[in-house]
Amino acid sequence: MITKRKTFLQINDDDNLLVALQNLKKGTEIIHNGNRIILQDDIDAKHKFTTEAIPMNGEAIMYGVLVGIAKQAIPKGGLVHTFNLHHASQEFKGKIKDYHWSPPNVDKWKQLTFNGFHRADGQVGTQNFWLVIPLVFCENRNIELLKNAFINGLGFQKNDPFTEQVVILKNQIQNGEKLKLPEFDKSKKTTLVHKSDLFKNIDGIKFLTHESGCGENKEESDNLCSLLAGYCLNPNVGGITILSLGCQNSQISLFQQKLNEKDPNFSKPLYIFEQQQDEGSGVEQMLSEVIHKTFEGLIEINKCQRSPAPLSKLRVGVKCGGSDGFSGISANPAIGHTADLIVSLGGTVMIAEFPELCGVEQELQNRSINSQVADDFGLMMREYAKRAAAVGAGFDMNPSPGNIKDGLITDAIKSAGAAKKAGSSPIVDSLGYGKYVTKSGLNLVCTPGNDVLATTGMAGAGATIQLFTTGLGTPTGNPICPMVKLSTNTRLAEKLPEIIDIDCGPIISGDKSVEEIGEEVLNYIIKLASGEINTKAMDLGQDDFMFWRRGVKL
């Protein structure tokens, strides 16, 4: 545990960089393990300074791994930043050593269950959604029409204080008055109404739109249909309505092929409509039929009820976004401990965003259960890096301006902290984008670091809950997968309470340990999976969906 007297932290014994836990002034004397360090610069909280002089081209070590090379000589006690350090990472060579893991004690949770939705294929959902999706962007307008009809007709709409503000200003203009809004009433916050009185066992109807499905290469259509098939297979989805135009690349037959590959015995209610094959009756008639059939499906899945399931049925994705210099020492290790608890209970965890695993590849390969899993991961990392280089980019460009401002100055520093989300359990599988998780334990899922692309990918891989840490404040949610937001620092939790579910700041202040917060997160997950609570993103209706488009548009 970090004590309250701590003003800095060394994460690994081999590190020659220390993290400031609060603002430190130039000239401050630091005594660390008998080493007297005089700060040569002002060091802002979350930023790093050296334990020893680093010569030009010398290595900077953090989290026990190489995180950068000095552009110039950095004095002992000097600030480390983009002007004097550039990204560098360790080479990786496949699985080169055995890995031994000591699972945490999970006796207190072994007999616990969560109340989930049991599907015919043995999966258990934490939600019961009806999903409406287009196979091509040409159907987005029809999706929006259906969304308005169902959301308003069934009472799933948001409470909306902002329309009221527009009406107030409109009336002031009409009356010749000066424009002035009353002070915002926080009790009138925008909140999604989750339940319909008519369908008490349905958690909502979710509508996806996207910009793909045609005018692109075959790989894109294959990946899109595979991702959408994963959404249909996800146990949080009880039934599906699909709209197709007809002439697009992402044909109904291709989607059905991808769904059959994932589950040949798929048995959920699934209704598919194709606009160009509608015998000339018009889109209005087709949409009327869509509404009618979807209502029949809603009646069917409303028969599903929550019932106890072992915690081994949990599938949890872990993600970080809007990260800061505290991410790798508070929230990420905390959910890493949660991940270890879930794996120890027989559950499934998945970590994505491969650009943010750059620099820790060797560690992850050594943690793989066999050479095949390690090699699959290494191959995907190299192919990803090659694609990035082909367009003049690279993993070194991953840190955003916000990341850098708050202490994540190289991709390797960011990645080493990001990897802490995965805990320490063995890696059982390495999955390409659009693939579906089939093995319990820790899985690697290839996605970009982009928040929505990564969370979309993990939901498509079967995640039923996702843990999302943030140091700067990121509102990301997902249509079918509840997103738990964890702040790395208490200031953020107090500044943006409308998006933060759990504050991990007490780890920084020394009031709680990583393990204590990690256990609290697991207990929160059990309540969430049972439908007892909703996340802030769910209440806001933050339904973000984004397909990873990699090919050339044609």
In short:
The chain is of the alpha/beta class.
Describe the protein in words.
The protein has 554 residues and is an alpha/beta fold. The chain has 3 domains: 79 residues, Roll (Archaeosine Trna-guanine Transglycosylase, Chain: A, domain 4), CATH 2.30.130; 158 residues, Rossmann fold, CATH 3.40.50; 223 residues, no CATH class. 31% of the residues lie in helices and 18% in strands. It has a 7-stranded parallel beta sheet, with helices on both faces. Strands 1-2-5-8 form a 4-stranded antiparallel beta sheet, with no helix packed on it. The model has no long low-confidence stretch (mean pLDDT 93).
Please count the beta strands (DSSP E, at least 2 residues each).
23
Main beta sheet strand tally, sense and closure: 7 strands, parallel
Mean pLDDT: 93
Please estimate the helix content: 25-40%
Oligomer: single chain
User: Which sequence of strands runs across the widest sheet?
Assistant: 19-20-18-17-21-22-23
